[in-house]
Amino acid sequence: MQADPPATRLSLRALRYFVAAAEAGSVTAGAKQVQVSQPSISTAIAQLEADLKVQLFVRHHAKGLSLTLPGDRLLVQARSLLAHARELERSAGAMGGVQGGEVSAGCFITLAPFLLPGLLARFVERHPEIALTIQEGNQAEVLEHLRSGRCEVALSYAYGLSDEFEADVLAELPPRIILAEDHPLARRRSVSLKELAGAPMILLDLPHTRDYFLSLFRSLKIEPRVAHKTRSYEMVRGLAARGLGFGILNAIPRLPWTYDGKKVVAVAISEDLPNILVVSLRLKKVVARPAVQLFANFAKRHFAEVWPKLMQTSPKRRTSSKRRPR
């Protein structure tokens, strides 16, 4: 019977030094970050590479370090393991009291102003023992933060997801057309995208987001005339309110006013087009720590309670009429 291979013993200190060097991009900067000597970092990394029998970094002369593929994978797991260790220390230190911990969460940048202020206030009030940090970003950034372990849970849209992510659906939002209140189509109950062919479009130009909005037109074999691109949700509304074109958005606040005091109208699209899902995301290969699961469950309950109060109710689609309103 063949004996099992000897287990590799990984030091938490070595993993912490490895993460510091990886995040800083050099041994010198990593040493400063964790306040140890440069040889200590170098020795820890060399020992990790010897124990794991893989190269974790590519050394660039006078240009620092870059992670290899095994190093990149270890970084995700190391961040999660170190967070588990810190949570265990807090729990043990509480001597049977309320369990503490830390949570690093991500949020899609256009959802953040709607969700985070109330969510953070309520969560901190209910769970002051948990240290919570938030990182906002576009979809590409949110997914990268999850892959790299910088975030363990994120509130975002279901754009560009692969099977490496676990998504818990929070809401389903239809796309709607954003128009100035005096636009000729603004009083219509619904409008066909075909009626907007050739009209100037204001595109929310974020990774994955732009692809979704453009795909709505292309599914109808229409190529929109993009007149303005912006990375700002409020700029879409502001430009539309000034009559510079139409926008398309999914999350529609109850208040119609823009920052400069103008008013926009959200009109339903008459075509049967795909909605977008608001989801809570996690990386499947990373086991959710108790504090992370607590936050995810809290966020889901908060979303269900608060979101309907913040958003305009979307009218049911109806075949658009060619008659202009008086």
Short description:
This protein is α/β, with parallel strands linked by helices and 326 residues long. The protein has helices spanning 12-24, 27-34, 38-52, 69-93, 112-126, 139-148, 209-218, 233-241, 290-310; strands at 57-60, 64-67, 101-108, 130-137, 153-157, 165-173, 176-180, 190-191, 200-204, 225-230, 246-249, 264-269, 276-283.
Task: Outline the structure in words.
It is a single chain. By secondary structure, the protein is an alpha/beta fold. The chain has 3 domains: 12-76, Winged helix-like DNA-binding domain superfamily/Winged helix DNA-binding domain (Arc Repressor Mutant, subunit A, Orthogonal Bundle), CATH 1.10.10; 100-172 and 277-310, D-Maltodextrin-Binding Protein, domain 2 (3-Layer(aba) Sandwich), CATH 3.40.190.10; 175-274, D-Maltodextrin-Binding Protein, domain 2. The chain contains 9 helices and 13 strands. The strands form 3 sheets. The protein has a 6-stranded mixed sheet, sandwiched between helices. The longest helix has 25 residues, at 69-93.
Category from helices, strands and their pairing: alpha/beta
How many domain regions? 3
Low-confidence parts? 1-7, 93-98, 317-326
Helical content band:
25-40%
Q: If strands are numbered along the chain, what order do they take across the biggest sheet?
A: 8-12-7-11-9-10
Number of helices: 9
Give the CATH level 1 class of the largest domain.
Answer: Alpha Beta
Which descriptor suits the 3D outline? Answer: elongated
Order of helices and strands: HHHEEHEHEHEEEEEHEHEEEH
End-to-end Cα distance, whole Å, is 89 Å
User: What is the fold-level CATH name, i.e. the topology of the largest domain?
Assistant: D-Maltodextrin-Binding Protein, domain 2
**How many β-strand stretches?**
13
**pLDDT average, as an integer?**
86
The named CATH superfamily of the largest domain:
Periplasmic binding protein-like II
Provide the β-strand percentage band.
Answer: 15-25%
Mind telling me the C-alpha Rg?
Answer: 25 Å
Major sheet characteristics: 6 strands, mixed
Question: What is the level-2 CATH architecture name of the largest domain?
Answer: 3-Layer(aba) Sandwich
